[in-house]
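Q&A log
Question type: sequence-to-structure
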Amino acid sequence: MSAAPTILLRDDAALRVFDTGQGRLPVVFQHGLGGDANQVAQNFPDQPSYRRLTVECRAQGASSAGSRRPFSITMFADDVLAAADAAGLDRFVAGGISMGAAIALRLAARHPDRVLGLVLVRPAWAFDAAPCNMRPYVEVAELIRRLPLAEAHDAFASSATSARFRAEAPDNLASLLGFFARENATTFAEVMQEIANDGPGVTQAAAARLAIPSLVIGSGIDLVHPLATARELGETIPDAAFVQVTPKAADKDRHFAEIRAAIGGFLDRHFNNQDQS
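Response status: OK
Response body:
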């Protein structure tokens, strides 16, 4: 299902928003750090019964950075909530991938009157800010901000971090190396450093008080999105369903197909026959 983008102005940032505009069940679903609406489309089972809204966060996708600082998960969550307000979505399921999962968790914890359900795909954060699994993003960002791009790329490619990822999580390494080739690499490095050092701002106790249907999806062969993080969230959020899917590094097509099937099954089980008004 395609969605024609519109522009939401926030401060002096122009954010691209995708809204399928149809469907009885509203789902706000966000991309990961450095991702965009295309990443969401790979993971989300768009179908006529779901109205899916996605905001390309500041300096990601085709959205501009704006001048407001610092970048944070709180800022991005506030932008997403503003887009939901503009679209007239009073209550919705919140979900996302990696950074998008952190945004969704914050929305669920801070706005329980708005969030009907929660979908966390390959979460990179549980409850602490600046988890060690996000340190490679800081390393990449610092190199980009300090060196010419070609030198920064070569320095990271020959680093101990790169060697570890090449051996243990090649899909993660491909993503990290891709940041050096971004058109807005210097601006995005600022986003990357600040977000990697941030967190969802949700305590374990707050997550344990969530009283909504929840789904957590994790996978292996992934140093950025540890399976242990997904399990911790799944064990903390009351009655959350936990699904482990084929690692992206092992079989991308199967990985995405299993995620879409898990999300679709979860949404249909919990919301297909319910009135969302």
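Response note: Residues 130-197 form one domain.
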